[in-house]
Amino acid sequence: MATLFISDLHLAPERPAQLQQFVDFTLAVASGADALYVLGDLFEYWLGDDDLDEPFHRRVTDALRAVSASGTAVRFMRGNRDVLTGDAFAERCGASLLADPTPVDLYGTRTLLMHGDTLCTDDLAYQKFRAYAHDPLNQARFLAQPMAARREQMLGWRRDSEAGKQGKTAEIMDVSPPAVHALLREHGYPRLIHGHTHRPGRHVHHVDGRDCERWVLNDWYSSGGYLRCDAGGCNLIRL
Q1: Which end of the chain has fewer beta carbons closer than 10 Å to its terminal beta carbon, N or C?
Q2: What pLDDT does 122 receive?
């Protein structure tokens, strides 16, 4: 038995191949695992839980509900793209919502789960927008708009974000080592699993004389993948 982790799928109607890959993954790989953790950015964007019955969204939530129905625990953590997912979304998926960060005991190893964007502390422009997007009052104002207006505003934010990335270095958009070390120290030097940066791999951080493992999940823009963890450790697997 194993626990699986995915993030940064960025599913959208204009990317049907990734949707099919996700559905195939839920059927062939995730169903029957101990648990499936989705650590944010399942969708390219999320306009609110009142959009649940949109056909594309229903295909995604139906796939996750089938995983839950198989006996696999489904856990969902919001990312920066789907920060507005809520209780109705989780109920439709048969999932439990997680706080960011969330500590778990993973087969005897203390492990901290995050989306990962809070570790990118050198990207000051992003952190400023993140604070805006997570403000409950700003969220309420956004959700009070008609769906068409929300979509137009969200797509404008996405265009601005992509344009802004052109002027940023890869180092600025990656995690800050001091932020990672401070987090590991605060939580008792656990293993860390996160997404967001689209730089999959295993890293070892030396903090206060301890070696701490950090696993970064891959995005699904080119090809999907997941992290598989069991009592023997973790491995990144490409689909």
Answers
A1: N
A2: 96
